[in-house]
Design goal:
Elements: H1 8-19, H2 29-40, E1 54-55, E2 64-70, E3 76-82, E4 90-97, H3 106-125, E5 134-139, H4 143-147, E6 152-159
Antiparallel strand pairs: 1-3, 2-3, 2-4, 4-6, 5-6
Helix pairs in contact: 1-2
InterPro entries: Septum_form
Protein name: Septum formation family protein
Pfam family, one: Septum_form
């Protein structure tokens, strides 16, 4: 999954604040760093209630997404879904169901997700992935999610230049 990371300068500044005696921010440095880290990955704000988030297992093809929700292990657990006519950044274009059995391992599940999501792209957008102005991302189940019965990979697309989307891209031919 694509991620933005906290710039090194910000991390060093926060670390420096924790080491300055009498600064008054020592107690808050960890909270500040956590906020910056969550914000940098596009995570839902701490004020979101569970009702505002659609669980990853409840996502349907065509859902338009503004932000991801994460757990303490940095695993995507849900999405903030909006009407596609509203500004959004990603759109769910396919859900790939993997066969039951043992977890195939991270490398294999990611390779399968890549192949299946790219194959489903043209059927949703109306043009091949290679010819499209959109980029793709996939979120495959982790080993723990697999053991809990989740065998679904979510295939999402977004504007290649990271411009907000307005309206669905289904059948757009772009």
């Amino acid at each position: 999954m694509r991620r933005r990371s906290v710039p090194a300068a910000v991390m060093l500044a926060v670390l420096g604040l924790t080491l300055l005696p009498g600064c008054g921010l020592v107690e808050n440095a960890e909270a500040i760093f956590e906020h910056l880290e969550r914000e940098s990955r596009g995570a839902l704000p701490d004020t979101q209630t569970p009702a505002d988030v659609t669980a990853r297992t409840d996502m349907a093809v065509g859902a338009c997404v503004t932000e991801y929700g994460y757990d303490d292990w940095d695993t995507v657990t849900g999405f903030q879904v909006v009407d596609c006519d509203a500004e959004h950044y990603e759109e769910l274009y396919a859900v790939v169901e993997h066969t039951a059995g043992e977890y195939p391992g991270d490398n294999r599940i990611w390779k399968t997700a890549e192949v299946e999501c790219i194959a489903a792209f043209e059927g949703y957008v109306g043009v091949s992935y290679e010819e499209s102005e959109y980029a793709a991302n996939w979120i495959a189940p982790t080993d723990l999610e697999w053991r809990d019965g989740d065998r679904s990979t979510l295939c999402l697309l977004w504007d290649y230049d990271y411009r907000p989307l307005v309206g669905s891209v289904r059948g757009s031919g772009r």
